[in-house]
């Protein structure tokens, strides 16, 4: 059987559009041991390898399991990251957050960064890969998530500090007024019913649900106040509905600070920067 015939059979078994075709391409690429999807698409006439294992994984894909969890890895800003169901699969919007954040400071500066709720380490590792002279720390309340982040850091040979704890409050006082950037993609979904059913089924609730949806922003803003260096900054990924709540929340906490809200590639207000 050729790769093309296996692909056509897969589509026929679910109907065109029922399963993301790029996810099928990724499975085919993986099981045919090709370096990327473009290579796969130019070699569809080749004999399919590992048909049985592909079919097993495709059965999981048909049930809605994310391809990243099936393969055990995903791509984030050119890095290959190990992922499993203990960590959120990093999204394109979070890639945008990283790219915007690293533009906030002159590249020559040696700054200290904390990624709160680091999960797989995606944000912290992407920043370190682009700004190797920055000191980057990732924190998480989940030990299993930190284990994944450490594995990714070792695999990528990136030197980041990983700390286990809830938010920022547990960080030692010697870090007071030394952190230039606190960055996070915190949980901000208040109602599980808002989630895609497959996200709800497979991805960690700990990384998604907050009730109220401002819960973790308020926590990180309060706990981070003592840590920020002069002219320090928060950079958050947000839901568009959080613009007004965030502004109101910081009127007394950071009375002289200013918010900047930025849109993502889809035109949705997705990023919040607080200049203290």
Helices and strands in order:
Elements lengths: L2 H12 L6 H11 L5 H5 L9 H12 L4 H5 L1 E4 L2 E4 L9 H10 L10 E5 L5 H9 L4 E6 L2 H14 L4 E4 L14 E6 L12 H6 L12 H10 L3 E10 L5 H11 L4 E6 L5 E7 L1
Helix pairs in contact: 1-2, 2-4, 10-11
Task: Describe what you observe in this structure.
The chain is α/β, with parallel strands linked by helices and 276 residues long. It has two domains: 3-63; 73-275, Rossmann fold. Helices cover 38% and strands 19% of the residues. The protein has eleven helices and nine strands. It has helices spanning 3-14, 21-31, 37-41, 51-62, 67-71, 92-101, 122-130, 143-156, 197-202, 215-224, 243-253; strands at 73-76, 79-82, 112-116, 135-140, 161-164, 179-184, 228-237, 258-263, 269-275. A hairpin with a 2-residue loop joins strand 1 and strand 2 (79-82). Helix 1 (3-14) runs antiparallel to helix 2 (21-31), helix 2 packs antiparallel against helix 4 (51-62) and helix 10 packs parallel to helix 11.
